[in-house]
Design a protein that fits this description.
This protein is mainly alpha-helical. Helix content is about 45%, strand content about 10%. Strands 1-2 form a two-stranded antiparallel sheet. The protein has a two-stranded antiparallel sheet with strand order 3-4.
């Protein structure tokens, strides 16, 4: 559920006008966040990170490694899908850069507090893992089932983003 929670936060940040999923990832991560040349890196967008279509090589020694040396070129962004944790994990830095809040604060302010959810992200190696309890995750599940609405309050206001988030990005 951590990836879904992260994706939901990206949608909230976009609805607040703090980022666009069509933006280059380097806008938020800085130049050189990968080992690609600038032209290759500039083709990677937040959307590519969300949909796991960054074009980064996933069969590296440590596919969770988020260091630039581990983020190597395989194909042009958007051409190739691969389940690859590292670029997705870096969405936490995108959220932090765009909103000025760390991921846990942003989750708490925008989702957890409004719906009465407990939990937090913690680092495990390179990964961000969300720890919570069953009741809290059930609350998040209900929020998703209700298309981003909690007790009449629209938590995720970008309904188009919500549709994209809850449907496959691949055929």
């Amino acid at each position: 559920a951590g990836k879904t929670l992260t994706g939901f936060c990206v949608g909230i940040a976009q609805a607040e006008g703090k980022l666009k999923i069509t933006d280059q990832s380097s806008k938020y991560l800085g130049s050189g966040w990968t080992s690609l040349n600038q032209t290759q890196e500039d083709k990677i967008t937040v959307w590519n990170q969300l949909t796991m279509t960054t074009g980064l090589k996933d069969n590296v020694a440590d596919p969770d490694c988020t260091l630039p040396a581990c983020l190597q070129y395989a194909d042009v962004a958007g051409n190739r899908w691969a389940y690859h944790n590292a670029p997705y994990t870096l969405l936490d830095k995108v959220i932090e850069s765009a909103t000025g809040s760390n991921l846990n604060v942003y989750v708490y302010q925008k989702i957890a507090n409004p719906i009465g959810m407990k939990g937090l992200f913690f680092k495990s190696g390179y990964n961000n893992v969300y720890a919570s309890d069953s009741r809290s995750m059930a609350r998040f599940g209900l929020l998703l089932l209700n298309k981003g609405v909690w007790n009449g309050a629209l938590i995720l206001k970008d309904t188009n983003y919500f549709k994209q988030m809850t449907n496959s990005s691949q055929t």
